Amino acid sequence: MDKSAFYKEIFSTVLGYSLDLFAYIDINYRYLYVSNSYANFYGFKPDELIGRTPVQVFDSITYNKVINPYLKECIKEKTPVNFDTWITANKLEEPHFLYMSYLPHISEQTEEVVGVIIIVKDVTEFKRAESILSVSANTDPLTDIPNRLYLEKKLESLTTNRDRTLDRFALLFCDLDGFKQVNDTHGHAVGDKVLHQVAKRLSKHIRNEDIIARYGGDEFVILISPLTDDNVISVIKEKIGRSISQPFDVAGIKIHIGISIGVSIYPDESNDVLELINQADRRMYKMKNNKPEM
């Protein structure tokens, strides 16, 4: 078997059995070749796509905002274009997340692009699993609100993003008063239910753009961002104080607790996230120590 026949056989096997999707379009975007996997994925038979264009495959938004611009770039720049994106197609029931490569076919005679080789990998399930894992990694399982990791990443973003570093924000470090006694008296199962209810109450008293996170134990941190009016801090603190002072009902048990709150403001008091948290923490404990024990 000569080399050309050997390579043709190899490529035919790859194109025929690979789970990836392959196609070739000419300079006018007409399909001259589609693999069985490509045609089947988009709901066609291979011969149904030959001579057609991606306009018949993708919905108008996907075609105009994704497919067409990247094809133009590949042809104009004579360079491979690799990207990933959510797409919707005319015969697909739901969006899919794809890794896509457009490879320019450049004629040896004219050195001009005469077509584009299309390679596609469907990674929708991986993307969905990644999204679920991301939510899980950033959410406190007990209270269903963001956790410390998410808060720290958010604060890092706010203080390192050049477009956001001048935006003011406030940290409210909150610690429950009398919560240890709840655990000691009624057990951790009841305490956990109280924490869940606390998170719900706190969430009701912040703005849509603000974030509340469980920092650890019975500690919560509220991020007020952007902070355009300092009066917002006192309003939120007052609402939270009144809310938490109301008794909690857990399986008929009335639980009474309080809350202490310390505040720090970026960048007025520090540009360092850890220092801001420590400042708010110290002020919270100063407030707690000035209260009578519950």
Describe the structure.
By secondary structure, the chain is of the alpha+beta class. The protein has 2 domains: 3-128, PAS domain (Beta-Lactamase, 2-Layer Sandwich), CATH 3.30.450.20; 138-289, Alpha-Beta Plaits (2-Layer Sandwich). Helix content is 43%, strand content 25%. The protein contains 10 helices and 11 strands. The chain has helices at 3-17, 36-41, 46-49, 60-77, 124-137, 148-160, 179-186, 188-204, 231-245, 273-289, and strands at residues 21-26, 31-34, 81-87, 96-106, 113-122, 169-177, 211-216, 219-224, 248-250, 253-255, 258-266. The strands form 3 sheets. Strands 2-1-5-4-3 form a 5-stranded antiparallel sheet. A 4-stranded antiparallel sheet has the order 7-8-6-11, sandwiched between helices. A two-stranded antiparallel sheet has the order 9-10. A hairpin with an 8-residue loop joins β3 (81-87) and β4. α7 (179-186) runs antiparallel to α8 (188-204). It is elongated and about 90 Å long. The relative contact order is 0.09. The mean pLDDT is 91.
